[in-house]
Each structure stands twice: as structure tokens, then as C-alpha cells.
Amino acid sequence: MGCAGVIVAAGSSRRMGFDKLAASLDGVPVLRRSVERLMAVPEITRVIVVCAEDRFRELLGGAFAKELSRVDGGAERQDSVLAGLEALQGDDELVAVHDGARPLVEPSDISSAIAAASAHGAATLARPATETLKRADASGIVVESVDRQGLWFTETPQVFRASLLREAYEAVEKGGLHVTDEVSAAESIGLPVRIVPSSRPNPKITVPADLDLATALLR
Prior knowledge:
Spore Coat Polysaccharide Biosynthesis Protein SpsA, Chain A, 11 strands, two-stranded antiparallel ribbon, alpha/beta, 219 residues
């Protein structure tokens, strides 16, 4: 099955205070590293970046090994993903949706997620919850412990048969729902999503300290 990569990179980085996708990660912009990781996956035939034209031009100039294109994003993440889906071609039977702010994803892990989605329809990279989890009330007081058995932190890419992800987002739009990832959209139509454990750290750059961590992991 042909697989296209869709990188969501239309956010404003409000929590960061500056454009995190333009931040240097050991000399290379974060967004460019994310694109390069998807380009290194043999199963991915092309990559679509959902972002503003100026961000694309400034951070992704030059040649890449595979076809690279751009579409404008929307107000919310789900709007941007829909824009990416609309840019798919007829031979893109699978789609891998990835956060532009996850520049350390392992290409072999992406291949594993693609294989799982090809076999089962939907898959996501994730890591198991290993910390002790607590639930707190509105004032920040611990109320109870939460059993971490079976709990996972979902990551990206999240890979789907393109027709199934379109169906899921149609249901999201019809129901007026707000979702923050593709697995949540899949849940809205009862679509089972297979967990594929990440073999290496795959953090999302969210706050300035994450850049220091990512740089250390990269080196």
C-alpha cells in the first residue's frame, strides 16, 4: 500500500513563546528534522506539510529525497489534518499523520506502525505509562492513585488507511466534536487502533526545556 506522510505544523507555539519549529536542534530546524525522519522511511512515498507558506519557505528550502508539498492549515489541529487529507492522491492508500514538533521519531518505528496499519487499518506509536499516576482535585490536592496498567502515552505518527481516517473525521465534523489526535477521531466511529511501542524516545517539543532534552538525546 502506498503511504503518504502528513506533517501537522500550523501551530502558533503559544506555550513556547517563539516558533519552536524554527528552533535549532543541533544546527537543524526542528521541522526540517521531522520531515527528514519521515523521508527516511522506505514505505513513505511523499510528504505533505501543513503550514504557512513563509514557514515552509524559510525552514524547508532545498532538495529532499522524495516529493515534498505544502497546504495551508486551519484554526484547530483537526482542521489542519483535514487539509492534509484533502491533498492526498489516489494511490495514497495509507496516511501517516505526524506532529512537526516530534523531530526524534525513529524511522524503523514508523515502518512498524505502517505495517500494523496495513494489516489492521489503524495504528499509533505510543509509550507505556511507567510513572506513578495520581488524580488531583481542582485545588491540587491528591485524591487517589490511578492504576497505570494498560495506560499509554500516545505519540505520532498515527497511521491509518486513508479511507478510514476520512470516515472518522467526517463523523467528527458531523458531530461537532473537538479532537486533539487521530486516535480520538477513530474512537468516534469505534475504529480499533493498534498500539505500536516506540523503541526510542519520541518527545514532543512543547516548552523550552524540551529542546535541551532533544539535543541531548540526538547527540
